[in-house]
C-alpha cells in the first residue's frame, strides 16, 4: 500500500493535516511542519481507520531525521526540492 492510498497529497493545500518542506537546503527539505506554506506538500489523511495523521507526522519526522530525502532531492547544492510523487509513492507496510 502506498501513502497515496490513505492520504491526499498536493501543494497549496491549506486544509492538510500537516505539510512537508518541498524546496530548501538538504537539511530542511522533507521536514514536516504544522505551519501552512503554499509551496510545501500538504498531507491530509483520508483513511483514519488505517493511519492517524499525528502518527504519520512523526513518521515523516523520522524520515527527515534519517536523511531519507537527501538521495531523492534534485537541484543544485544550495537549493534542492522533492516532488509530490516522491511523497505519494512512499510504501506503507502494516505491522
TrEMBL record:
It comes from the Bacteria. This is Restriction endonuclease subunit S. It comes from Salmonella enterica I.
Amino acid at each position: 500500500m502506498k501513502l497515496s492510498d490513505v492520504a491526499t497529497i498536493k501543494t497549496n493545500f491549506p486544509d492538510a493535516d500537516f505539510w512537508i518542506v518541498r524546496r530548501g537546503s538538504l537539511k530542511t527539505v522533507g521536514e514536516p511542519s504544522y505551519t501552512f506554506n503554499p509551496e510545501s506538500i500538504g498531507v491530509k489523511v483520508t483513511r483514519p481507520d488505517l493511519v492517524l495523521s499525528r502518527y504519520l507526522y512523526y513518521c515523516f519526522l523520522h524520515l527527515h531525521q534519517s536523511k531519507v530525502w537527501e538521495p531523492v532531492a534534485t537541484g543544485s547544492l544550495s537549493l534542492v526540492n522533492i516532488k509530490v510523487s516522491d511523497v505519494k509513492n512512499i510504501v506503507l507496510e502494516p505491522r
